[in-house]
Amino acid sequence: MIEALYIKNYALIEELRWEPSKGFNVITGETGAGKSMILGAMMLAFGERNSSIKNINENSTSIIELFVNTDNEFIKQFFIDKNIDFELPIILRREISPSGRSRAFVNDSSISTADLKNLSEFIVDVNEQHQTLSLFKKNFKLQLLDLFAENNSILEKYKLLYLELTSLEKKISEFENQLSRLQTEQDYFQFQLNELNELNYTKGENKLLEEELELLENAEEIKNSLFTVFQSLTKDDFGIISMLNSSISMLKPASNHHKKAQEIYSKLNEFSYNLSDISDELENEFDKIEYSEERLNEVEERLTLINKLLNKHKLLSAEELCVIKENFENCIASYDYILEEIKKLKNQKSIISVEYNLISKELTKSRTKIIPIIQKEIKNILTTLSMPSANFFITHKLKEKGNEDGFDEIEFLFSANKGIEPQTINKVASGGEMSRLMLAIKSLLSEKKKMPTIIFDEIDTGISGQTAVKVGDLMQKLSENAQLIVISHLPQIAAKASEHYEVIKTDQNDITKISLKKLTEKDRISAIATMLSGNVNSIKAELTAKEMLNS
Predict the structure, then answer these.
(1) pLDDT of 351 above 90
(2) CB proximity list for 250: less than 8 A, separation 6 or greater
(3) CA 334, CA 471: separation in Å to the nearest integer?
(4) Mean pLDDT across the stretch 161-173?
(5) Domain boundaries along the sequence of the chain
(6) Quick one: average pLDDT of 401-422?
(7) In which region does residue 210 sit, left (phi positive, over 0), alpha (psi from -120 to 50) or beta (all else)?
(8) Is there a contact between 332 and 186 (Cβ–Cβ < 8 Å)?
(9) What are phi and psi of 529, to 5 degrees?
(10) Closest CA to 46 of 65, 69, 70, 72
(11) Which neighbouring-strand residues pair with 27?
(12) Alpha-carbon span 551 to 542, nearest angstrom
């Protein structure tokens, strides 16, 4: 329940602190006195969007605080999820700077207004006059059925499966779109890959081929050079090696007795060995080099094919052929991968669809089963609200495709009088009739939601007399299990409240201000008498007011 409301510098409210009682609280006041401003401040504390409104002091921050003493599993889980220390009372605070920037807090921890609004849904149920429009909203109608049927568990399972199924369908659609794009390119990719596979290029091959081509084109000249050098080294009498060996022999005697001669002798010996190795290499290389016109043609054709593909793919290096080949392989592999993924996802969808269809049927069964009970309950409440001839029906049909709320399509049909065929509410219900129907539905919802605090803002519009008394009785009954805050203009409802507050507008120093006054017994008689007759000093109205308060 709400323990206290604190407002500072909001609209025409300079500063206000209000501590509503646990039971039935009514707020009254003249038209335009500012009742809606108090509710507007509360709605900000509940996370509603800030509307541009002129404050008394435009240069100061607006502060609205709600002190709430409510403890349930949903609220505790919210605090755990948001990593906020749980402590009672819960303080919901909204600050709005002069520039219009808004900040929200829960127990002094900063929080988004969206999260503040989500938390408030477990604290308070606000029913405003314009909410009769909710009677036309599909989700409101389903909420009535689900709350009454206690479908929380079924609905949660259904929504999880629905989200999983729609997620799978989205993934399948995305993969199928990719596959469609790839299919148009698949033949192209395969042709290019076949061409590259046929080439079968290996890294470094281009350089080796170019070297081999140069060798083959100059084979005769190279062989002649090698042979000439080989002969100059190995001729029997006049070869370089023969003459060097002769010189070594001549130096040998001197090397036995002369140190320097010994050094030169050693160097010449080493040089002789090296020249012998070189001559062997010349001979081996000469034997290896063979000119082949067939091989020359093969190499030229191979290089021509490589260069052709380089030009085709606009590559600078032959090594890039390996890269684009891998790219084409990846594209083709991705096609196969996507095909496999689609197959897997469709299998998953098929499995989940079975469970999804079962739970959707269970949800539908639960909803249709509760419809007659709700119809009867609402008709009974409408009877107590001076509508004994009213008829209320809930029609049900299945949609071809489900959404996050299920396959069920619900419609409310209503008639207030005998002989009138029930039709959709907007065709047959007056403003007062819709208010009573909404009150009947909300009273049922409030019982099921077990909401700590319920707020009604002029939901009694369009009713009067004995009907207003019965609406007051219904509200009084609701306040037995929940804190009730009612903004009303009807004396019959005000008389039923356990606490009565009046909004007062005053002018001070050319500034209009709003305050909220708790009425004493005497004040209540005067206020209700004024609401009855419009005359502040009507003795007859005061007697009626006393009677109403004592009834």
Answers:
(1) yes
(2) none
(3) 68
(4) 93
(5) 1-123+452-519, 204-318
(6) 86
(7) alpha
(8) yes
(9) -60, -40
(10) 65
(11) 487, 501
(12) 14
Polymer length of the chain: 551
Q: Is the pLDDT of residue 361 over 90?
A: yes
Contact in structure between 39 and 64 (CB atoms under 8 Å) = no
Element (H, E) at 503: strand 499-508
User: Residue 180 above 50 pLDDT?
Assistant: yes
Token digits of residue 285: 């290389």
Give me the chain's average pLDDT, please.
Answer: 83
CA distances from 12 to 34, 220, 313 (A): 8, 110, 76
Q: How confident is the model at residue 132 (pLDDT cuts 50, 70, 90)?
A: very low
Tokens 């409030």 belong to residue: 446
369-389 mean pLDDT: 89
pLDDT single digits (tens) 243-264: 878 888 888 888 888 888 888 8
pLDDT at 183 over 80: no
The reported pLDDT for the residue numbered 4 is 92
| Of 271, 242, 266, nearest in space to 258 by CA | 266
Look up tokens 């009535």; give the residue: 144
Angle between helices 205-217 and 219-234 (to 10 degrees): 70
Give the whole-angstrom CA distance, residue 314 versus residue 337: 29
In this structure, what DSSP letter does residue 420 have?
P
Query: Which residues, listed in sequence order, are joined to residue 63 by a DSSP beta bridge?
Result: 8, 95
pTM for the complete prediction? 0.63
Q: Which CATH number fits domain 1-123+452-519: 3.40.50.1860, 3.30.428.10, 3.40.50.300, 1.10.10.10?
A: 3.40.50.300
Q: Which of the residue ranges 24-28, 165-169, 442-446, 487-491 would you say has the lowest mean pLDDT?
A: 442-446
